[in-house]
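Name: Lysyl-tRNA synthetase
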Amino acid sequence: MADARTSDLEVEFSRFHAGVRRGDIVGVTGYPGKSKRGELSLFPKSLVVLSHCLHMMPRQKAVAGSDNSNRSEVWTPGSVRNPEKYVLRDQETRYRQCYLDLMLNVEVQDIFKTRHKVMAYVRNFLDNLDFLEVETPMMNMIAGGAAAHPFVTHHNDLNRRLFMRIVPELYLKELVVGGLERVYEIEKQFRNEGIDLTHNPEFTTCEFYMAFGDYNDLMGLTEQMLSGMVKELSGGYVIKYHANGLKEDPIEIDFTPPFTRIDMIEELERMAAQGSCK
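Structure predicted for Lysyl-tRNA synthetase:
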């Protein structure tokens, strides 16, 4: 909120007022207050342009019957996305100029922050159970550990063909055999296969292995980790997820423990008998 009557800019006020554009980064010295409409503002006594925005940033268009200045509806983890309220909506522009997407759509920033919280929670959870975080090679001489098509590269100095890893399983199991009884890795994997809403050639996973435990121990540990993470991030156990894209209605997923346990073979036979298997 710049007002020539309350600033010390005097002659420079008009130049700043005419020259500062949307997207410029400025340094301001002043005092806080409220405008005539009651909006919290900063009344500057002095102003300096720190960095010019060379390309004018898009602005949010006014929508009839709505108040674009109302930002009280903040996205929280597990809630429905609000793409219709984005300032920048063109998907091609958002994906090719992700920095612009981050600058204009606050919800996108919140999603980045939520991903960080998820990673931090998983690490803290496993660390508290005495798991050791490790790093295993991303380039291998054999593409083993899973049935997937690998990306192939070449090591010039060794004159050898290498494969980008499709899974870290074999290395992690070798560490367990070697005496590291509880290990985990949050890592990148690469699979030279199809792309869709839930599959990407480059993706991040978490794999953990523990000695002297069976599938019942792993089910209990996974249930505790997932339900606890959802509770901490969203405040409850029920979340909404856009499984079929933002244009479709979200589905509801309940992480309330205990999770249902089913016998795999019996459930497959039941679904086959009902004609549910495709």
